[in-house]
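WARN retry 2 of 3 for item q-0093 after timeout on previous attempt; input resubmitted unchanged.
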Amino acid sequence: MVVEIQKKYDRNIRKNDPNFYLESATKLMTFFNNTLKNRNPSIDLIMSSPTGCMLIVEVMKNYYLNTDLTKQNLVKKTVDGISLNMNQSSVYKLLDRSIEQNIFVSVLKENDKRVRLILPSDKTVSDMEKWFDEIEIV
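OK item q-0093 returned
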């Protein structure tokens, strides 16, 4: 309850402070400029569509949490996160293309060779970490 009141208070202060909006706009423009200047296949995937963005966010999130992510679960999370009306075959095609381009790698799960896990490639991890450092969102 106290946190909610504080958030409303902070929002009301920001509404009266044009500098907040100017700084936000500047930060957003810097984000886009840095993204365009530092293009690579991983960043291109993010910027290509909401689907590409969801794919890479889910893969990177599971990578950092050190949790298994199967191809089927990744497609389900992507479709659920964007639109239930989305065609799963489109997501599979984009995912397969990302694997072909070595943005992601598909590996067999050690304790169950029937299951394929999706991981970011080493280059993708490096590209994304560099990009995160440069855009300074957080």
